[in-house]
């Protein structure tokens, strides 16, 4: 195994995954602004705007700081704003691939890559709302096969009668 590890792709989930939350908090913001104009509570009502603004900002940050990195040997996932959690999956452990392309994500050229693995602690890895998902699946598959050959790994399936 003399191959040097290089990065194939790195990215974050699309902010489109937060569309429902964004719409909800924008409706709440509109309700707070309407309450300001139609009630006698005055400027104190505008203090309530801090809640949706903060919620939207935190949601945006959580998605922005969820990073996928696919190299020629592994998949690394880092998530967290203040505290960070990193997981790694060796490519030779990937058993199966699936593409999930919901209509609303296909409209913006995104999809989910679902990987079934032989790793007991991480049996399924989902790369959510990533661009060019079919190309990414092909890259993972190609490098998975290379890593299996380099390590001499074979996947054994046993069917019981």
Automatic annotation (TrEMBL):
Record keywords: Membrane, Transmembrane, Transmembrane helix
Originating organism: Opitutus terrae (strain DSM 11246 / JCM 15787 / PB90-1)
Name of protein: YdbS-like PH domain-containing protein
Annotated signal peptide: none
Bilayer-crossing regions: 19-38, 44-61
Domain YdbS-like PH: 64-139
